[in-house]
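User: I'm writing a short methods note and want a consistent example. For Pyridoxal-5'-phosphate-dependent protein, I'll paste the sequence; you return only the structure tokens, no commentary, since I'll be parsing the reply automatically.
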Amino acid sequence: MIFNDLVDAIGHTPVVRLRAAPADVTVVAKLELQNLFAMKDRVARQVIREARENGVLAPGAPIIESSSGTMALGLALAGHALGHPVHIVTDPRIDAITLAKLTALGCSVHVVEGMTSNGWQSARLERLASLREEFPGAFWPRQYSNPQNPLAYAALAEELVADLGGIDVLVGAVGSGGSLCGTARALRRALKAAGRSAPLRVVGVDAVGSVLFGQPDQPGRKQSGIGNSLIPGNLDYAHIDEIHWLNDREAFAATRDLARDEGIFAGNSSGSVYQVLKHLAATVAPGTRVVGIFPDRGDRYVDSIYDDTYWQQAGLAELPLRTEPLHVRYGTEVSGWARAEVPSTPRKRLVFVESNTTGTGMLAFARARDLGLAPVLLTNRPGRYPGIGEADCEIIRCDTNSADGPAAALRAHFAPDEVAGATTTSEFYLEAAASLAESLGLPGNPPAAVGACRRKSATRRLLADAGLPQPVSTSVTRAADVPEAVAAAGLPCVVKPASDSASTGVLLCTSVEQAQEHAAKLLAITHNVREQAVPPEVLVEELVQGPEFSVETIFADGALHLVGITRKSVSPPPSFVELRHAFPAPLEEAEYREIEQVVRAAIKAIGLRHGACHTELRLTAAGPTIIEINARLAGGMIPELIRLAGGPDLLTQQLRAAAGMAVELPRGALTPTGVAFITSSAEGRLASLDGVESARLSAGVAEVRIARRPGDPVRPATDAYDRIGYVIASGDSVAQLDQSLDSALGRITVRLTND
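Assistant:
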């Protein structure tokens, strides 16, 4: 076979039957060491290609990674072939051969000088962080948590099935968790698809002194490419049934045995796997097929594993040397070869149908991982998401704007029992997520109720049927009908689209002509910013006078709980852009209870019964008047304000609800907390934002975040997308909070270019 380039030559490795097995047991080695450099060539190719396709890795941009050997070589290979400079952060354990290979391929190698809090691994990650600041726009493959790491081994599993057919036991070393977990998952799916009913048993091999499987960390261990001082995100315990630990002496001795007995010159991770394979060969039932993954060659270890002088200097002979594993309870500290069953709860997938591009969007993926869930993003265009390359989220491209696109994508990638829930942080995909959840029998709101929230005219009809207070509102589908609608609403009136988000298209109109002109403009829009078709419908509504509030609620154990009420401040007419929020809102007890009563009735009328709800209202002289009900979390950083004020982390609780987990709502005293958004007073291109550091130092300020860069276009805010950044602060009272926000904003100057 002739390949177009070296990258295509990765994989296609042979399987070899080992001699150390009785005739009635098949024990084979998958020689991943026959890749151009080693097994992680597969990961490097997958990660880099995926990053390029998703727009995360720009042409010619640098690649920066922490690696002790094989991943570094894979990145050097794939990065060099695809035109990217590669920076490798490593430690003094790197061998001369690997260093020579990396240098020959043009890599920049950065060697840390000493361990930090979590051994060599944390020292390397700290150096990597400084390099990322030095090289903005560089891509960090994140081999320990990038979902593309385990996904890269689907091809390995396919090769095993093609070469061997049925497999009973899979054995592999564990470092980042990607190779064994990824191969095991794909292999189980492939065997099931082939009609094999017998379960696959997966045996992991770790190093004594590694924290991966409940052992205390011993940073001085000598083994390379196996074990870890940190728990990587790609280690999914649900895919591993049994774990073996070998100490340095046992691993190195087994590696020498592998060369002498089988003629395979390999590294210590392969040697450790070989030792476990020999044990299984002698203990499994006749007819069993056992496969071991051999990751890398032995040339990197000529002056360690294969060097008697090194053995003597390292004191390896002083370590225990067992010929059989000691069977222990999981969690028992071990010093030599031992094995234990791995207690595991399957890591379920939490599926996001698209996401916010800012705010909670990327944060939600991290929170999902914190809950023990594996986030999956279904998207039709990954490149729209800044930061997606560091979100540790599996990306599946599909047509999210089609009715059956998300469900078809999930069926192609996961078994039904692998998915815990379906959700979204994007207003535009609430209906799609609800429909997907319903089709899979997962927790969620009725799609009809979510649709009624998205289609504001439907909201108005349901509230009217329930006799609840709301603005006078008329739905129009032709500009010619606007005068009659204005007559019903009165002037000034609000003209807005029936389904959009972030105050887009909402305008206060002071004349019939202006209302008619704006309605015609909105009716001419056929698709929104997510390329979704929009209904040809506009609402002409009464302008409701009174302070505006945001009411956050969430269902827990089937009951609706009021989390809190936020005071909202919006821009002066004619637009309605949220510029400041304060939580909790300063309200009298009677006002609070009246608002709660109306909101509860409104949510019941709409038919929502799951997860978070965000209701907007104005408090008029006659009482609360409902403006909008949304089947989602609030925007405008309100969930973060509630968390910082001492309330629940609503984002985490919403994810828990989506995954069918119990919602937790701690109660306690709240500290007034608020956000003020930074906007421009004129249109142009941003030259600089002066005074940001000074604002960060202002009394009471907790955070200042800027969302725009020099050169970006800015303008006075007409919707939420025009906001440049924000300041978050807290105080002993709402009045003090406002003073802190005013002071911080006063220190920030938006400067525009003269171009």
